[in-house]
Amino acid sequence: MHSVTFRRLGIVLFIIGVLGAALSVYYGMIRFYLVVIVPVFTSDNTIGALPLLAIFAGIVMMAIGPVFGNDYPDAKEGMVTENVDSRQDQGRVKIGGVVLIGPIPIVFGSDKKMALTAAAIAIVVLAIVILILL
After folding, report:
1. Which helix (H) or strand (E) holds 64?
2. What are 33's strand-pairing partners?
3. Rounded CA gap, 62 and 14, in Å?
4. In the chain, what are the domain boundaries?
5. Are 13 and 58 in contact (CB under 8 A)?
6. Which residues pair with 97 in a beta bridge?
């Protein structure tokens, strides 16, 4: 398996685990607590623990994906592929993110638009978390 396959499988497992955990919290198979700012999940049965195991397995698979080799196994050493050339022609990569330290958000981005986009996504995620905790 290639590292891309591990990462994709990890993402799929993570998403399935998050959806399963949300359903399990809704049906009462998993209890959700917020200790200071760290989310804590507990479950008394095996079925409730399966989504949590899927989340953990997804994170592990995404983390070990790069260890298993080259993303482009057909490319020979020293050979420039079209994917690399086309990425360089497209220009600069734009990034943005939010770090929440308690109630204090730290928003960053490579430009103003990305910082505002990251802040908007953070507001939506916080609203969802508040609705879940009510």
Report:
1. helix 46-64
2. 40
3. 9
4. 1-75, 93-134
5. yes
6. 108
